[in-house]
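Quick one:
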Amino acid sequence: MNKIILHFLCMFCFLPCLAQENEDPIRLTYQSTLLGIGKTSIYDTYLSNLEYKGTTVGLLHEQIRMTGILKGNVSAQHLFNLNFSWTDNEAETASDYSGFIDYAYGLHYRFRPAKNLQLFAGAQANGILGFIYNSRNGNNPATAKAHLNLNLSGIATYRFQVYSQPINLRYQVNAPFLGIMFSPHYGQSYYEIGLGDDDNLVHFASFHNQLSLRNILSVELPFNSTTLRLTYMNTIYETNINELETRIHSNSFYIGFSKNFFSVPGKKKIKGNYKSVFE
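Output:
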């Protein structure tokens, strides 16, 4: 009897270890933070019929983690972009200043068509809030921008080696296809809106009145203790509604660092296999 009890005790001690070895790898969270600078052009007929060109600076923060949905092939992405621009008209007689906050949460399904190549396809819930201020206008010096969109989104990643060092190449494209946007009417001042003239300010948005495209191309270079991320971002933002036309085009270069990690509550330590998002 003592031998049987001892046998079962050994089994119970061994099973957790066996389960630890056979369980799925611990899925890491990918995170990067980048700072960027580039060129931009702004054309907004609510403020001016002239195009303004100048400089834009931005902050890009991203977080991606594979979920347990559909056998672990669905990723959840948080993408936050903050930018500020200052531009001048061609004669340099007036300036436009603009600022935008852009947040998107997306779910993508992963495909593996070839070795070292991953494709992600999905959708994003996207919110944009911003302003454009013109230094020359008196009555209507600024205009607000607000959007809620559902975006189509795709990601392609490819991993290769250069002198035995792994290099990660990634491209992402996002484009809204359905949403709502805020827009005043032509000649309608924000003072009038404040007095109660607020009818028909929120509009359905789709390809007929909103064209927006964001292209993000990145390369990641690993070093001893960190990974350097270099990114080129092209942004096209165009709306045409209430006889008002807005066009914002920008090209920016970002630099920053990325890492993979997992969160553990308290001081608990976990041993096991680890798997990053883009493996």
